[in-house]
Each structure stands twice: as structure tokens, then as C-alpha cells.
Amino acid sequence: MFTKKIIPFTVLVLLSLFVFSCSSDDASSTEELTLTLQANSQHLLVGEEVSFTVSDNNGKTVTDATILVDNKAIVGYTYKTTISGIYQVVATKPNYQNSKTIQLTVAEETLTVKANKEIAKPDDIITFSAINNEQKDLTSKVIFFVNAKPIEGNTYQVKETDGTHLLVYAQKNTIKSNELAIQIEKEQPKIEQIIRGKWKLENAASHEIIYNFYEDDTFNFVYFGTLMQGEYRIIGDKIHMDVISSGFKMTDYSIMTIKKHISQNELDVNLIVSGVHEQGQNGRLIRLKEDLTLDLQKLVGTWKAEANGQKLFTITFNDNGSCSVIQAENTTGIPNMETVQYMSKYEKYSANTVILENRNGAYTYYLTVEDFINANEIQATLFEYVLFPQKSTALILKKM
Description:
Elements (H helix, E strand, L loop, with lengths): L1 H31 L2 E5 L3 E3 L3 E8 L9 E4 L2 E2 L4 E3 L4 E8 L9 E6 L3 E5 L3 E2 L4 E8 L10 E4 L2 E2 L4 E3 L7 E8 L2 E2 L3 E5 L6 H4 L2 E6 L6 E5 L4 E6 L2 E10 L2 E8 L2 E16 L2 E8 L3 E12 L12 E7 L2 E8 L5 E3 L19 E6 L2 E5 L6 E11 L2 E9 L6 E8 L1
Parallel strand pairs: 2-8, 10-17
Antiparallel strand pairs: 1-3, 3-6, 4-5, 4-7, 7-8, 9-11, 11-14, 12-13, 12-15, 15-16, 15-17, 18-19, 18-25, 19-20, 20-21, 21-22, 22-23, 23-24, 24-25, 26-27, 26-33, 27-28, 29-30, 30-31, 31-32, 32-33
């Protein structure tokens, strides 16, 4: 009897140990089931896709985990966003411990354009490239613009007509790069190639001077009511003007140094005038419209002179060289304009200018015809010579 009771008790103990052992093994097994999450990139640009892989603690690939991005489940193992920001990602699966959280940084794409030259000359070929903020080469995926015009490919040959700078940028869809300025260095044109013509000198003296440089190397200008004319020579960056008066040559009466070619129509200069501005004065030459050649017969008749829509005087030009002027009106602010009424004769002074004088020469005006608007209307400038030849009035002459 005693033996029979011992055997069941032993069996019961053994069974309890077996159950406890199995229970311990199951708990140990559950704790060891963990997930590891990896992304093929943790730094992305808006619109780029990221791929995930999940494995367990034994290195076995897990294909049925759930990926949570900012606590929201996604479909599958890929993800793409259209919004920049920082995202928290974790992998989960029932009976597995969650993976460690990984962080995705998603940024707006930016473009940076570069060029192989900062300074170029006409006919040079410039090569452009473009990278994004991840340093990825996007040269073949963007469109390059030079001076706001798209070009084919990523090279550009500089033209003579391109100006002083090229403004370059790249564009990919709606993304625009920085703007790059490339300086264009052009060979300075020779003075003799550009100086011929009519120029106004500004800021160099107490009044403006109009220079005419002709193809036969002669020149003229009016200085304090006196027509100065002669021959000019170009030596280096200097224009030497030799004034000829009554057969006498005043060598180097004026020397004009070209300091800077701003454009074909604008030059920075320094002017030396013998006996007047011997230290030189800085100024600027501005190209003007070429003088027309005035036919005096076109002036014959009676004209009403207006300035700013107001009548100033009426003048009659006779074909015998005489003229008559009716008393000036509306001349407030125009010093000595009333003296024009004493003009009684006129004659051609230069290609497009007539000189108006009274009989004894006490009063003198110069009337420069700028343009024939039509047969009955003339654009002109009246220059007064009393003491200050710089005084001038823009006129419209209308035939009566």
C-alpha cells in the first residue's frame, strides 16, 4: 500500500517539472522574437521613394511586418512623401518586439548651377553643370537658361552681341536654381573705329560741348560762341585736336583721353584744353544723332516758334538772307530771350545750323535744326550767345 502511494506522487512531481520547464521555454522564446528595420536611405528629397527591409533576431527576412510612419501604417515596404519634414518609422508584428525607431529626413530639392568659367570672351565655350542639395549630379535632367532663354544641352558659345554679362540658371520641373553671372570681357574697340560721328560732352566743363568727328580726320565744335575746327590725330587712347584758324594751326589745342568704353555710344573721358583746362576735367561723351544737312531753301517762309506748347516768337526767313522776328512772348525763365526780336539777318553756320544776328552783330543766336518732322514742322534748338553759350531752348517751328 505504501509503495503504491509513492509512485503516483513521483509521477505528479515529474509532470509538474515538465510543465514548468515548457512554460519557461515559451517565455524565453517570446522574448527573443524581435524585429530589425532598415531603410535604403534615411535622407530623402520630396518625391523620392524609400524602401524598407525587416529581419528578425536570427537574421531571417520578415516579409509580413507592418511599417508605421509617424504611427500610421503604410502599404508594403516602400514610402514616398510630397511634404518635407522629419518622420519616425518603426516595424511591428504580432508576438514580436517592435523594431528600434529609425528617422527619415525629407527635404525640398534645391538646384545649384555651376560653370567652368567665371570670365569669358566672345567665341569661348562655357560648360554648365547642376547638382541638388544631396550633391547628386542632375546636369542631364535640367534645362539651362542663358539670359532667360533656354539652351540645348549644357554648353554655350559666347557671342559678340551678348553684352557684358551672361545670367545663367537651371530649372527642373518647377524647381529653379540660383542665378550665376558670368562676366564677358570684350576687346576694347579701337578709338578710330567708334569716334566718328556726333557726340555731346557732359560734366567736363561749365557747359556742354557738341563735337563732330568726320571721316577725313577733321572735327568741329562750338566753344563760347566760336566755331572751333581743325584736324584730329589718335595716339593710343588719346584724341589730339589741332585747331586751325585763319590758316594757323594750334597743335594739341585739346587732348581727350578715353578712360573707359562704357558702350559704343558712351565713353568716359578726360579733357585738357590749352589755356583753359590744362589740368584736365573728367566728363562723358554721349553719341548723338548725326547732323542732317540743312538746305536753307527749306527755311524760307514764316514760322511760329513754340516751346512746351507755348508760342515764343514768330520768325520770317527771306531768301535774300534777311529775317524778321516778332517780339518774344512767354519768355519767363528764359534770360535775354527778348533780344531775339532784334535779329535781322541769317546765314548758314554749319551743316545744320544757321546764325542769327542783328546788323551790327551785337546780338547773336544759333538755330540748330535737329530734324524735319514734316514739310511744315521742324525740331530745333536755339542757342543764345551773349556770355553763356550753354543756354539753349528746345523749339518746335511750325510753318504758317
